[in-house]
Specification:
single chain; about 850 residues; alpha+beta; Phosphorylase Kinase, domain 1; Transferase(Phosphotransferase), domain 1; Rossmann fold; 4 domains; six-stranded antiparallel β-sheet; six-stranded mixed β-sheet; about 55% helix
Length: about 850
């Protein structure tokens, strides 16, 4: 491959230009003619996909990398193969230059280097959290876009090279210099090999050369494994001490003695910048050399700042205020991001996680006058795995991100808080809180007061602030409680639940009047019941929730916990009472609204459920989640026109997230406006491809094209990203069934879907959608009796739900219950259920010839 490829069309990509070549393959700039955008096509060298095993490995690695969604990671749009068997990856194309080019022609100053490294570390942090290791971090794999973003490219490809055992002639030397000793010696590697490579890259950026630069491979390998380079500060005396020490820790030959997490790198560099800024602000005549070279063009305005702000500190200067880059937005839409734990103590990490949750909960209680104010719930931040200001803006339309770090000192705890304007990515303010260990309960109170001060919010009696109530003055009790909250955040792992219970129990041992700790025990035992289905945990959950209510029945968190347990036990009336009281005390409590709306819906009080969802929107009219929930509610009722308005509002509020596009596409699917559906799905794919999107595309091929093989391909692609959705396993089984695949394989997938769904049912036995899915799997497996039983339960729980009626009718037809199927399907169609699904579902081939159904269709045409 070479220049001869230019002008050719591969699939729907027109090759425009050759932009690079190396041991892994050739990269071309291409035009995606379907979505009208520029992309980068990387055609892999034939040795990387030389046989079936190698091709499967390539697909596996590329799919894993494609699941990474982060502003500092190059997006993978597609993996494919040409007609003559050449594998390729379609990636995002970015105008800009590689870090390698920058270092060769225009080396950046220290502050610019730090800004670049922080973005690289953030990308690595996201990948490592997903269990993905790059293995080839080097300047050539770092792209600096003209918009000022850093993109890491070629995730997963280095592993392919390692596993093929082929030497990268021509590029091996450059890669070798950044390899960790363990990678070089063929030992097992983990994420710390990337941190080593990052350290080598940092050394080169700050010193102008790599620490190991021998020309011959053997000499270079020997040096990497056996010798220590001079500290960066010896070569460049201007390197700050903190950065000097950080680099030496990153390139330590023993992985256990390195900095262990990318998040720690970010925190240390942030701290270094803040310390530098604070020291400059104290010197009235002092100057800063920030951006002394215009090396990183962010935009026309930022380029102007890079030239003119030479004598100003990094933050707080009048030019930054003039351009509104570091000012507090008028609308305060807060998201508290996961706090960084400085150090390796896992208990301190739990404390950091718990403090993030308790701080978020307390901030929802502030209700400043004349300000648009809301706070994203901690559960939503965790669910979306949002860790950066850019992600907070994209996913939640948040205007301010709160970063924090916790450091445990000898007799003190230090909390650093940074406010970042998500729209400009500039720090607004930063502060540090240090409390002695014996006064640890003061930490949350001081953090709230400090944040209110930083946001210019006055906290008084009129705000209804409640954070000082139901607390404890016992430092040990408070510490155990916060650590317990941290472990309980990750309740998907049962060991974390047991650890949380242990910590909450120690908390109440220290202070038997601490209501929130008892509420934590109630929630933890309920989570344990969800996981084990051991009913003895239900009684303990209820016992501790009751104790918390006895101590304080006015704290919203206590009430929400009580409501959750009551709703889970089917005591819907009691649940409504608790949720209503929580909403009255804290009108911004998203968990209380969700619980109350779910309780109303379970009772069939649809008007009340709709009212409470609308009330949540009135209180937070710029928060997209409320519109999304109301839109979902309308879809269930077949009110598609109303749903469209809600999802259009979601798109307006978060145009760079795929939620609104996907949900709106589903509504148009039900309305049989399929051109709009496909357009919206492609819009969503352009923003962020994911498992649900591919599943939706599979459904399109299944129902509208009757292309069951293509549908199965989409479902398999979805499962390769996330295999935890029972629905998608069931969809795959159905697609393979009608594609006339091996029956044992089909049955195996139905059984897997059924097993996963039954586990999920343990969490909420009144989930009508889940009950219908289970009935469908049972019908497909020939379990007639149990299928009928689950269908009856679903209809009893949600008798007015349009989707439940239609889906249940299809299962009744599978079971041979034509009369029941006819009744439910016609009712669902009258309420707006998609006729296209009925006309195209292969399970209904005989049903569509029933004279009664034909007569109904004729009557409505």
């Amino acid at each position: 491959m070479g220049q001869s490829m230019i002008g050719k069309t591969i699939s729907h990509y027109k090759i425009l230009d050759k932009i690079g070549e190396g041991g892994m393959g050739v990269v071309y700039k291409a035009r995606d003619t379907r979505l009208d955008r520029d992309v980068a096509l990387k055609f892999l060298s034939s040795h990387l996909t030389a046989n079936e095993q190698a091709r499967n490995r390539f697909v596996r690695e590329a799919r894993a990398a494609s699941s990474l969604d982060h502003p500092n990671i190059s997006v993978i749009h597609e993996i494919g193969e040409t007609s003559d068997g050449h594998s390729f990856i379609c990636m995002g194309y970015y105008d800009g230059k590689s870090l390698k080019e920058l270092l060769e022609h225009d080396p950046p100053d220290i502050e610019t280097s730090v800004a670049i490294i922080i973005q690289i570390a953030k990308g690595l942090q996201r990948a490592h959290e997903a269990g993905i290791v790059h293995r080839d971090i080097k300047p050539a794999n770092i792209i600096l876009t003209d918009q000022g973003e850093v993109k890491i490219v070629d995730f997963g490809l280095a592993k392919l090279v390692n596993e093929t055992g082929v030497t990268e002639t021509g590029s091996r030397g450059g890669t070798l210099a950044y390899m960790s000793p363990e990678q070089l010696q063929g030992e097992k590697v983990d994420h710390r090999t990337d941190l080593y490579s990052l350290g080598i890259l940092m050394y080169e950026m700050f010193c102008g050369k790599r620490p190991y630069h021998e020309e011959h491979y053997a000499a270079l390998m020997y040096s990497i494994v056996n010798t220590d380079p001079p500290p960066p500060s010896v070569i460049n005396p201007t390197v700050p001490k903190d950065i000097d020490e950080l680099i030496l820790k990153l390139i330590h030959k023993n992985p256990d003695k390195r900095v262990q997490k990318a998040g720690d790198v970010i925190q240390i560099l942030d701290y270094t910048l803040n310390k530098k800024t604070n020291s400059e602000e104290k010197e009235t005549s002092g100057t800063s050399n920030f951006f002394t070279r215009q090396t990183l063009v962010i935009s026309a305005i930022i380029a102007l700042l890079a030239v003119t702000v030479l004598s100003l500190p990094y933050t707080g200067g009048p030019l930054l205020h003039y351009f509104n880059l570091n000012q507090t937005p008028e609308d305060i839409h807060l998201v508290v991001l996961p706090f960084t734990n400085i150090g390796d103590d896992p208990d301190n990490q739990a404390f950091a996680d718990g403090l993030m949750e308790t701080l978020t909960s307390s901030l929802t209680l502030i209700q400043p006058a004349d300000v648009s104010y809301w706070v994203v719930s901690a559960s939503e931040v965790r669910r979306q795995n949002v860790t950066s200001a850019a992600e907070a803006l994209r996913e939640f339309n948040a205007t301010i991100a709160v970063y924090g770090s916790i450091q445990r000192l000898a007799n003190q705890v230090r909390l650093t808080i940074n406010l970042v304007n998500t729209r400009t990515s500039h720090q607004i303010k930063s502060d540090m809180i240090t409390v002695p260990l014996e006064s640890l309960p003061r930490l949350l109170d001081e953090a709230i007061l400090k944040l209110a001060q930083m946001l210019d919010i006055e906290i008084g009696s009129e705000t209804g602030i409640y954070y000082l109530a139901s607390g404890t003055s016992n430092p040990d009790s408070y510490e155990h409680y916060v650590e317990g909250r941290g472990f309980l955040q990750h309740y998907q792992n049962i060991d974390n639940i047991y650890r949380a219970i242990e910590l909450f129990e120690r908390s109440v041992e220290q202070d038997s009047g601490f209501a929130l700790a008892y509420a934590g025990l109630g929630e933890a035992y309920w989570r344990l019941f969800d996981d084990t289905r051991n009913t003895e945990w239900v009684n303990l959950a209820q016992q501790y929730a009751n104790k918390a209510l006895e101590l304080d029945n006015f704290h919203p968190s206590v009430l929400v916990t009580a409501g959750m347990i009551q709703l889970g036990r089917g005591n819907v009336t009691n649940a409504i009472t608790y949720y209503q009281k929580a909403v009255e005390l804290n009108p911004a409590n998203a968990d209380a609204y969700r619980g109350l709306a779910a309780a109303y819906e379970q009772m069939g009080l649809l008007n009340e459920a709709e009212d409470i969802l609308k009330r949540a929107i009135r209180l937070q009219p710029t928060y997209w989640v409320g519109y999304n929930q109301l839109g979902d509610f309308y879809v269930k009722q077949g009110r598609y026109t109303d749903a469209i308005l809600q999802f259009e509002k979601v798109i307006e509020l978060i145009p760079n997230s795929n939620y609104g596009y996907m949900n709106l596409g589903i509504v148009y699917y039900y309305l049989e406006e399929f051109d709009k559906t496909i357009e919206l799905f492609h819009n969503a794919a352009e923003i962020m491809p994911g498992p649900i999107l591919y599943s939706n595309l599979g459904t399109f091929y299944y129902y509208l094209e009757a292309d069951y093989e293509k549908a199965a391909e989409m479902y398999e692609k979805s499962l390769s990203i996330n295999d935890q959705y029972h629905q998608i396993w069931g969809h795959l089984a159905s697609a393979l069934l009608w594609a006339e695949e091996d029956s044992s394989r089909v049955a195996g997938y139905y059984e897997k879907a059924l097993e996963m769904a039954m586990e999920e049912l343990k969490i909420n036995p009144r989930d009508a959608d889940l009950l219908v899915s289970i009935a469908g799997y049972q019908a497909s497996l020939g379990d007639h009796h149990n299928s009928l039983n689950y269908l009856g339960r679903a209809i009893e729980i949600a008798p007015e739900n349009t989707v439940i009626k239609g889906n249940a009718g299809i299962v009744y037809e599978q079971l041979g219950e034509r009369n029941q199927a006819l009744s439910l399907i016609i009712e669902a169609l009258k309420q707006g259920y998609s006729l296209a699904e009925i006309e195209n579902d292969p399970h209904l081939r005989d049903f569509r010839n029933d004279p009664r159904f034909i007569q109904y269709l004729q009557s409505v045409q």
